[in-house]
Amino acid sequence: MEEVQTDSFEDVQYIREKFERVKKEVEKVIVGQDEMIEAIIIALFSDGHILLEGYPGLGKTITVKTLSRAIDAQFQRVQFTPDLIPSDITGFELCDPETRKSTVQKGPVFTNLLLADEINRAPAKVQSALLECMQEKQVTIGRDTFKLEKLFTVLATQNPIEISGTYLLPEAEIDRFMFKIKITYPSYIEEREITERQVLDEEVELNAILSPEEIILLRHFITEKIPLHKESVILKYSTRIVRATRPDADGNGHINNLIMYGASPRASIYLAKAARVYAFLTGSEIILPEHIHKMAYPVLRHRIILTHEAESQGIEPDDIINNILKKVPILEWER
């Protein structure tokens, strides 16, 4: 892996080039899916988890595996099934009958990138165990509590069309995901290139551009480079956008009958953090409204619960978000 000098962190352009190189390493294997790749990178530098929704065979697993190699990170994949139990992902205590001593066998959550494949196939107990890992970044096994890696990120997948043998994710767990990314089919040109690459079966050489330790340092660097002050206009703006997703919000009469529940305060935090990283990656020294707008869709779409009336009309959460972004003004004087 290439070495990154700590003093180079002061060179903003150098860091942005590193980000671009990580993206290009992933693109050596993955064709298209730019939104998914960009979102995963932003989540890594924002300390957030991602929910990936898409049909099978769209490259979700291989994307995460490839990214783990590009950042020299540990990677684990768990196929969620109805018979899964919490210890299958967290670990368990093993007792030796001869010595009467117990040892802890750590589970796959002790990693940097955890791919929770088809997360909605796991029962409530497993989802609750994963919830502790996501929120607290720790695991309780028996009477002991173990800290997870500092760079611990869950990338969960679910199929939007499957109902049989699945469990609805609790709102509390969905709210722990920073982003929900909807993955669509590739274009004709992209699909043709995917097929050509697989037919040729060529081995792709990947380089490790960053390390987990460097990503943690870069998180702090970005926070210092683009600070968010207490009276920040952009903080007020992003908070008003999140509040506008709630049916009882002022001036929300036009969509009150479409929203059952809106986004929680956690969405305000994630929106500001994600917009800061996105602003940095796009070369901006400050967060602009367009950065908030870009991040609003993946941050809010899984936090807006629609009414039956909205669903019957074919309205999607993205439609609601688009409406809100048009109506919420940017007012510097507003508190």
From TrEMBL:
SUPFAM superfamilies: P-loop containing nucleoside triphosphate hydrolases (SSF52540)
Superkingdom of the organism of origin: Bacteria
Occurrences of domain ChlI/MoxR AAA lid (ranges): 258-324
One of the record's GO molecular function terms: ATP binding
Occurrences of domain ATPase AAA-3 (ranges): 49-179
InterPro entries membership: ATPase_AAA-3, CbbQ/NirQ/NorQ/GpvN, ChlI/MoxR_AAA_lid, P-loop_NTPase
The protein's name: ATPase
